[in-house]
Amino acid sequence: MKKVTSIKEMQKIIKGFQREGKSIGLIPTMGYLHEGHLTLAKKARSQNDIVVMSVFVNPLQFGENEDLATYPRNLERDMQLAAEVKVDYLFHPAAEEMFPQKQAITMHVEERTERLCGASRPGHFDGVVVVVSKLFNIIQPERAYFGKKDAQQLAVIDLLVKNLNFPIELIAVDTVRESDGLAKSSRNVFLTEIERKEAAVLFESLQAAEAIITEGEKNTARIIDVMKTMLHEKTSGEVDYIEVLSYPELQPSDEVNGVIIIALAVKFTKARLIDNIIITA
Ligand SMILES: Nc1ncnc2c1ncn2[C@@H]1O[C@H](COP(=O)(O)OP(=O)(O)OP(=O)(O)O)[C@@H](O)[C@H]1O
Ligand SMILES: CC(C)(CO)[C@@H](O)C(=O)[O-]
Ligand code: BAL
Q: What separation in Å is there between the alpha carbon of 35 and the centre of ligand 3?
C-alpha cells in the first residue's frame, strides 16, 4: 500500500488507472480505523480494481466548540490496518494541502439537514459536502463507500451526487457493532469504563423501539418516550436528540409509516455518540 499526501500526485496516479480502464473504489474516512471502516474497505476490495482510502480530519465540518483538536489520530496504525485489508492507496493530505487558503467557495445543503445532526451541529453537513466533493473530484471513483451509522450523512451525500451529477455509485454498508451492540466509532475511545458499559443502552433503546413498532405501536411520541425513559434510567449520558423520521427524506410525522429512521445522539463526558436503525413500519 502506498501513502499519498499530494493532490497532484494522487491525480496523476488516478489518470494512469483511468487510461488502463481500471475501476476505482473510494472509502472516505477521518482515520483512527476500526472494524467499521475495514468492512467498508473489504467491500470496496471485492468490487473494484483499485481501492483508495482517504484519511482526513476535515476542519470544515467541526463546529467551534467541537472536538477537532482532540479527534483521535494514529496514522501508523491506520496504514497497517488499511494494508491488511488490501487498500492500494491511502490518501492523507495535510489540511493546508486540501485548503491552502480560506475556502472561497462554500456549499449549503438545503434539504435533509434541518434535523438530527444537521440541527445540533449547524454547518456540519455544509462542511462535509465540500470535502466529499473535493475527494470525488480528486479520486473520481466509480463507487464510494459510506456507513449506515452516519445515515443522515448518507442521505445528504445521496443528494449531493444527484444534484451535482457525480457519476458515482454510492454503496451503503450496514453498521458494524461491538458484541453488546454499541456501534463501532472512533470516538468510543473517549468513553470512561463506566460510560462504555452504559453505552450499550443506545442500541438497546433502538431495538426496544423496533419491538414495540412490530407489536403495532404507531404513535411517534410514545415510541420516543419509551426510548427516553430507557436512556434516562440506564446512562449518565445526556440525550442530544431522539427522533423518528421518514428515510431518506428525514421528515417528521405523528404516526410511523413506511421506511423510517429511528436515530439518537447522546453526549457523554468526552464523546458525543450517534446511532440509528432504518426499518419499515
Ligand atoms: N460502526 C460502523 N459501521 C459501518 N460504517 C461505519 C462505522 N463507523 C463509521 N463508519 C463509516 O466510516 C466512514 C468514516 O467514518 P469516520 O471516520 O467518521 O468514523 P467514525 O467511527 O464514524 O468516527 P466518529 O467517531 O467520528 O463517529 C463513514 O462512512 C462512516 O459512516
Ligand atoms: C465522509 C467524511 C470522511 C467527510 O469528512 C466524514 O464525515 C466521515 O468520516 O464520515
Ligand atoms: N462520521 C462523522 C464525522 C463527524 O463526526 O464529524
A: 16
